[in-house]
Amino acid sequence: MNNRNLHKRSLAVHAGTRRSQYGEMAEAMFMTQGFVYETAEQAEARFEQVGDDEFIYARYGNPTNRMFEDRIAALEGTEDAFATASGMAAVNGALMAICQSGSHVVAARALFGSNLYVLDIMQRYGVEVTLVDGTDLDQWRAAVREGTTAVFFESVSNPALEVVDITAVAEIAHAHGALVIVDNVFATPVFSRAVEQGADVVIYSTTKHIDGAGRGLGGIICGTRQFVREVAEPYLKHTGGAISPFHSWMMLTGLTTMDLRVRAMSDTAHAIAKDLSGHGALSRLIYPGLPDHPQHELAMQQMGSGGTMVALEVAGGKDAAFAMLNRLNLVLISNNLGDAKSIVTHPATTTHQRLSEGDRARLGISPGMIRLSVGLEDADDLIADLRQALER
Predict the structure, then answer these.
(1) What's the pLDDT tens digit per position in 108-153?
(2) Is 290 exposed, middle or buried (0-12, 13-18, 19+ CB in 10 A)?
């Protein structure tokens, strides 16, 4: 099969498939910790150089994991990928594998709370971290310098939905020899063109849209074969960040419907944002798919969609936001996203509660902000539920 001739929806079903001698239709789950060698000489040879379809230990690689890695790499348009135990294992692995004391990382300050925490840890070990407004290219130009190891940002920020210009930031970074690492969770592989736009390394929390059913944790690092196998893999396999075969198998099943799910969710998110825009109970509504979003044109150029996430700012602050959340019937309160079920989160008291009030304000996270992850329910039912919660 020539992957280059297939569209993403076909790749998500077929790419990377490995079949045993039994010719099974579904992807096989290889639940094994280790692998048997016919001779001691064969074991020695494999530890010296692992072949393309050879394995040593589940922490290093596994046939089910390799199917998942190859499928995502084909979708993302990268040479290779390494699957991890969670999205944060992927973020930590990609950054820690390239940095040491004295390294310099420039990052957008609008990041998921755990991403910010990883950067804090790196600073404790002597890595210099410069935070910038991800939407301000002048700040990127001022911060990136000769010797900068990497730039790191979310292509669409969590939770305020700022859209970073991948192409422009990549040009700035590459002019100084820096690696471009993009957390692409909100864009999803469905709408991603990150590699084409200049990203060197693309990270996903596969827990989100890729699984899509809230079943388990996973992450993945996509990039060149050299980066994945010679830089990221040694760090991850020795520090224990590899995914389990069971979770890889779950993610493979999720991929088969991801394109259909994400497009349907994005259509519904757009309908909700359009319907609630200007609602009297809201002081602000943020959705990249609406023309009033500051980076609307960039979002359309970069992704071709507004995505599955909507941010609502309820007038009246935390108390009003909590009252609205507690009145919802169909939409669930949780801190996950990308699920088939619609989910609301109050970032100031959950995902970003560790930040100071001033830092949250700088990121646009007000006490009244609610992050809405739109699921697969009927759009009219979701709108009705949101409206009754706001109007009561």
Answers:
(1) 999 999 999 999 999 999 999 999 999 999 999 999 999 999 999 9
(2) middle
Confidence of residue 5 (pLDDT cuts 50, 70, 90): confident
Lookup: tokens for 166: 């991948």
Per-residue exposure over 342-363, b if at least 16 CB sit within 10 Å of its own CB, e if not: bbbbbbbeebbeebeeeebeeb
Query: φ, ψ for residue 265 (rounded to 5)?
Result: -65, -40
pTM over 0.90: yes
Is the pLDDT at 1 greater than 80? The verdict is no
196: number of Cβ within 10 Å? 10
What is the CATH code for 3-254?
Answer: 3.40.640.10
pLDDT at 392 over 90: no
Whether residue 214 contacts residue 336, with contact meaning beta carbons closer than 8 Å, is answered with yes
Dump the DSSP string for 295-362.
THHHHHHHTSS--SEEEEEETTHHHHHHHHHHH-SSSEE-S--S-SS-EEE-GGGTTTTTS-HHHHHH
Provide the pLDDT for residue 53.
86
Q: Using the predicted structure, report yes or no on whether residue 160 has a pLDDT greater than 70.
A: yes
Q: What is the mean pLDDT of residues 278-282?
A: 97
Question: What CA–CA distance (Å, rounded) separates 333 from 351?
Answer: 13
Rg of the chain, C-alpha, whole Å: 21
Domain boundaries of the chain, sorted by first residue: 3-254, 259-391
Question: Which CATH number applies to 259-391?
Answer: 3.90.1150.10
